Every structure is written in structure tokens, then in C-alpha cells.
């Protein structure tokens, strides 16, 4: 009985000192959700720029239609893959990331092919849109890094003692990170 009372007293003291960490878990969970919204916002900005870029490129005579079609289809697929902040699972993040990677690849090919069209490269609208897309790609990278930072903070918090004792009880589970695209693992081949 004495042992039980000591254990109970210890538990009460621990809970009173840590407040179970519940409020901090809620704050960190909300930080992950807010940062996920920032990631989606950056991707949405890129998606909003694509129709303007496509319309500008369509004006170039004999521009490769298959490249434009590929970008349009990738954008449509990417916008159809929506992940709510309450559905952040490794599988959902992977689907989202794969769809967005197809858009990135299509835009990369579109911008590379545009090098063959001097009139298009000289077009002020095209130059402005290209600069905005490049800036948006940088924003996406920054927001993904911030997402991984706040996710790391959250995951570390819920997995550390004594928070790990209460996290599962209150429904706080580990959240996934953004990972590098599989294509990034292979160095590009450069030929001169």
C-alpha cells in the first residue's frame, strides 16, 4: 500500500510539474498544421501562375504542344491531390509530393524547351512569369524546410519522456516529413 501511495504521489507530482505536456502538444500540433497550410499556399501560387505561363507560351509559333499538354495535365493532377492537415500520413504526403514533382518536372522541361524560341525568351510577359515561377519554387523549398523543422520539433516533443506517456493517450501521433524526390538521389548527367 505504501508503495502504491508513493507511486501515486510521484505521478501526481510529475503531472503537476509537466501538465502532461498537453498544452504544448496542442501548440506544436497547431504549428505543424499552420506550416502545412503555408506549404500548400506556396504550391497554390505556382499552380495559379501556370495558366498565364501556358497562355504566353501558346503564342509562340510552333511551340511543342506536347510539352504544354504535359504541364497542363500535371497541374490538373496536382490540384486534385489535396491533403488536409488532419490527414498528414506518410502515404498522403508521398502522393502530394509525387503530384507536385510532376508539375516541377513539366515546368522544367517547358522552360528548357523555351530556350529554342528566341521570340518567346524576349517576351516580357514570359520573362516576368519565369522569374515569378523561379521565386515561387524557392518559396516552396523554404516552406517545406520550415514544415520539416516544426514537424521535427513536434515529433521530438511527443516522443520525449514524460510526454510520450501521454501523447498516445491524447491522440498525438508522429507526423511525416517531406523527403527528397527519388530523382534527387541520382546526380544529373552533364555533357559538353
TrEMBL record:
It is a single-pass membrane protein. Gene3D superfamilies: LemA-like domain. Keywords: Membrane, Signal, Transmembrane, Transmembrane helix. Its main location: membrane. Residues 1-21 form the signal peptide. Pfam families: LemA (PF04011). This is LemA family protein. It comes from Hymenobacter guriensis. The lineage of its organism: Bacteria, Pseudomonadati, Bacteroidota, Cytophagia, Cytophagales.
